[in-house]
Structure formats: C-alpha cells, structure tokens
Amino acid sequence: MSRDARNLTTMPNDGDLEKSPASQPMTPAISQAPSHTSTLIGTNAGALVGDEKGKDKEVFLDQSEDPKRLPKARKWLSLFIICTAAICVTCDSSAAGFTEKGLQESFGISHEVAILSISLFIAGLGIGPLLLGPMSEYFGRSRVYIASYFFLFVLTFGVAFAPNAPVHFVFRFISGFSGSAFLSVAGGSVTDLFADHEVAIPMAMYSLSPFLGPIIGPLFSGFINQNTTWRWTYYALLIWQAVEFICLATMVPETYEPVLRQRKAAKIRKETGDQDYYAPLDNRGRSVLQAVIISCYKPFEILAFEPMALLLDIWSALLLGILYLTFQAFPIIFEQVHGFNEQSTGLTFLGMGIGMVGTIATQPFFRKIQRKRAEKYDGKPPPETRLIVGFVGAILVPISLFWLAFTTYKKVHWIVPIIASIPFGSGIVFVYTAVFTYLVVAYRMYAASAMAGNSFLRSSFAAVFPLFATPMFDRLGTVGAVALLAGLSTIMAPLPFLFFKYGARLRQHSRFASS
After folding, report:
1. DSSP string, 372-403
2. Which of 455, 135, 185 is nearest to 289 (CA)?
C-alpha cells in the first residue's frame, strides 16, 4: 500500500495532507534544513536549529523524536487503542437499531420515528468532519482525540437518561457530531507511527475498524435489549467510552510532526528567551475560521464539478446505505420469516463481519499487483491502478445481494442467507479501499476535501436508507426489496472498470484532479 493510500477512512483537512509525514517522510533534521541556513547544532531541548544570529532558526525533530521510532510495543498499543476507539464510535451508530422497540414503549413514538436514533447519529458523523476536520492542524491529533471522546462520553449521558424522545434525538445527533472528530483524524496517526515498509498491515487493521463497528453493535445490543431495557445499551457504551477516553488520554502520544515541531519551538523560545526560533505552523497563513470555511465549501465544489468523484462517492454511499438498511432488514428476514428472537438476530450480522475480516488475507495479493503496476510505470503508476481492488468488490456485492434475496424464503435454511452476506462484507471493504485510495491519489492537492465530500454523501445515504426500509419490505417483500438493492449495486458495478480505462482521459479535463 503506498503512502498516498493510507488514510482510507479518515477525513483530514488539506493542510494535514500537505504537512503530515504521510506525504513528507521524516528525515534527519539536518537534511531538511535549507542549504543557505547556518550550521545545525543540538540544544538542551533536543532540537536542531540554526545558531547564528540573523540566520534561519527553523526547528526540526531529531530522529530519536520521530514517532516512527517509538518502541514497537508502544506503537502497536497505540494502534490497538485507536482501532478499538474507532470501532466504539461506529458501533454506537448501529447499536441503536435494537433499541427501537424500547424507545417506542418508553416514549410512545412510532417505529419510523424511533429509527431516527440511528439516522441522526449518522448525520452527525457526516457533518462533523466538515467543521472539525481542520482541528488537528491547529491542536494536534491527541488533543482532538481527547476532546472528541470527552464530549462523546458526556453527551451519551443525555442519550441514556433522556426523559423524552426530542431530548434523546438531539443528544444522539450531537454525540455523533462529537464522535466524528475522532474519525476525521484517526487514520493519520497510523501513518505517523509506522514507516513505509511496515504500514500496510497496521493501516489495513485500522481501515477495517469503522466497518466492524456497525457489525459489532447488533451483536451485543440484541442480547441487552432482549434481557433488559434499552437504556442499558447506552450504559454499556458509556463504560466502553470511558475506558477508551482514559486509554487515549494516557497511552496514545501526539504523533503529528508539524505540531510536535511547533511545541518544541515554543519550548526552546521559553528556555533560551530567543523569539527567533520557529516551526512552520508558527507562520500559518490562515486562521481556524478560514480553515473551517474552506473545509465546508471545497468538498461540495468537488462534488459539483468532478463527475468521477461524484459517481464514486455515490457508489460508496449506496453501499453504506445498504449496510445500514440491513439493521432494519435483518430483523424482518430473521425474526418475521425464521422466528428468531432479538439476540439471535443480532448474531446474524456475524456473516458480514467474517467477510470484512477476511479481506486482510488478500492484502499481500493486491500489494503485489500494485508493485507490478508501479514497475510498469517507472514507479509512478496512474491513480486508476488503485481501482483494481474495486473490480473484486464490484462483482462480489451484487452476487451477494442477489444470493441473499433469493434465499430469504422460509423453506430455505436460515444459515444460507447468513453465508450469502459474507461476500457483501468483503465486497464493501474492497470497494471502499478502491474509492478512498483513488480519491487520495487522483485529487492529491485536494484529497482531504475529496474525502470529506465522500464522508458527507455516504453518511447522508446511511442516515436516510433505514427510514424507508420497513415500507419497502412491506410493499416488495424480502425477495423483491433485497433484489432491488442488488439491482442498484449492479448498475454501479461498471464504474471501476470504466474509470480504469477512461480515467486518465477524464482527469485531463478536470479542475481538481492531478493529470
């Protein structure tokens, strides 16, 4: 996996991509300084700086301070915490699917209204990166993690103890908004911690985390809601969030190089009294407000003027919409057709989870293909080569959904539709890997904005699809409804093949894509 492809599930701001180690590999400090600067020396603060008056006194990190040189155990512990924290945020979205009956009884609302507990949380996840994405450029990743999880934890109390439906729904939205800040920068820490030759497996593990979360949610939520009240779903999440918050605050270090350099420069200025020492972020050309404004409009500009980005975003949005629609569809298929109880229905999502985890085993195969493509193009393969993994996903998803559709009859054993969902889990990961890496590489200068637009669109689909699931299944039946979704995914399936062939030609006429 190339360094351009690593932030697969995060939506950093454009400044992050330009300055992070993912795009600028860290080298010894002396090699980074301009040739016209003074001799570089060490100081008691550990930085290498110019020491002659009037000369450039830009501060760099020593090799020993490079986050990639942290002890291996510390790096893998940080990765584990980041992955589980990402799972926790997205798990929060789907766990609400099994609280709907309890919400109806407690608040006297309809089933359609109760579904808003899922939809509003996902809406918060989609809107959040537009406003919160630039925060790591100014405050670092660690502080964003801590603030995000603190507010997620506090606001979930409002969800768990809500006295009525409006309060519950308002807190669901703003808690999703808070959790989105973590997801918007988390992938960057993985590329900060691991060098080029060792980042593939860690990034593959992190990339799966936001997809596994929605699968894990029903597994425990089904058991809780069958045996106790819906509020215990959120009590359990509060406990998990508290543990993640403590781990993030105490065990995950700051890894964002520009912020580390800025803090070091401030320390040197304080110790020496010399105000000439500086880091690039000290000369930042825009304010937080300006960064937020750009983060809000640039993604929609790309969606409006880039047909390739728009179509790929719609494709990925459709698949996430289908994934979240299953939280309404599986209870219909397995409870109404096969007579499952709630906790057994929650276990039916294991099929998709197995498919997702299984994609890790394919990493060496696709890396080998990418290396051969890189050799063919003298180390500079076109962005379209990133779509090859999407070929597999484009084929697996429709096959899986058609298989699922025609095995939802009561006379078919219940294990068959669960097995049919396995390729869907794998396919969705392959599609997202292709779309994310293509957007990052093809829209290199605007990669963060392209990813933020993708996040907004797919979250919009994921928020809306569960709302029409029940009417669609009531009218079309399980076979017709799932077959309709399979047909939609079939219509979108040619996209990676078409863009693989014609993408380079289309990019020549693009306002934002690299040619």
Report:
1. HHHHHTTT---GGGGGHHHHHHHHHHHHHHHH
2. 135
Higher pLDDT, 422 or 197: 422
Element (H, E) at 227: helix 200-227
Give the count of beta carbons closer than 10 Å to the beta carbon of residue 368: 10
Provide the angle, in degrees to the nearest 10, between the axes of the packed helices 200-227 and 363-376.
150
Q: Which residues contact 312 (CB under 8 A, 6 or more apart)?
A: 435, 438, 439, 454, 495, 499
- Which comes out higher in pLDDT, residue 136 or 54? 136
The answer on 201 and 343 residing in a single domain is no
Clarify whether residues 243 and 300 are in a common domain.
no
Give the chain's domain count.
2
Which residue from 266, 227, 252 is spatially nearest to 98, judged by alpha carbons? 227
Residue 281 sits in which domain range? Answer: 58-285
- Condensed to tens digits (0 to 9), the pLDDT of residues 433-467 reads 899 888 888 887 787 788 888 889 999 999 999 99
Residues 6 or more apart whose Cβ sits within 8 Å of residue 135: 144, 181, 184, 185, 288
Domain membership of residue 102 (yes or no) is: yes
SS3 state at 36: coil
| 308 in Cβ contact with 513 (< 8 Å) | yes
Torsion sign over Cα 100, 105, 109, 110: positive
Determine the pLDDT at residue 272: 87
Within 13 Å and on the Cβ side, how many CA atoms surround 111? 10
Residue 355 has pLDDT above 90, yes or no: yes
